[in-house]
Amino acid sequence: MALKVVFAEAPPVSVLANVVVLPNASTGNVVAQQESAAMVAKVNAKYSYPWWASESPMEVFWGQVNEAVQIGPIEKYIAPAAQAMGREVFKSELNDPQALVAEFSERVPMSTSQSLSAKIQPRNGSESVAKAS
Asked: From start to end of 1-133, where are the E strands?
């Protein structure tokens, strides 16, 4: 048995191919914070008005429903969406922003949707997911 033991400095490449290095808890948190900060910086640069920090539920709802990706945790978005829609909004509904925009446009005056669209508009003119009716 002792002859089968090999004391090598590095394991063979075939062994390394199956090894996945996991970050420790503190490194993982730092990476997640850096990714979150990068996402926030990208959104900050995209808009001239910070809708994600607004006190108005309609502005937060309209900004997020027109974003291609979820900005921040869904739990932070559910309450403003419910207030803006005037009803309970389920997490599953957030997967269909077009339906939410259509319903919102039926619930509020056209002038409200137009003012939100004008206020929450990307700087570079890039297209958003949904448009006001």
From this structure: none
Give the amino acid at 14.
S
89 within 8 A of 78, measured Cβ to Cβ? yes
Burial (0-12, 13-18, 19+ Cβ within 10 Å), 124: exposed
Residue whose structure tokens are 């001239």: 48
- Convert the pLDDT of each residue in 52-108 to its tens digit: 888 899 998 998 888 877 777 888 889 999 999 999 999 889 888 899 999 999 999
Dmax (CA) for the chain in angstroms is 84
Closest CA to 131 of 81, 97, 92: 97
d(CA 118, CA 130): 13
pTM listed for this prediction: 0.60
The DSSP 8-state label assigned to residue 76 in this structure reads H
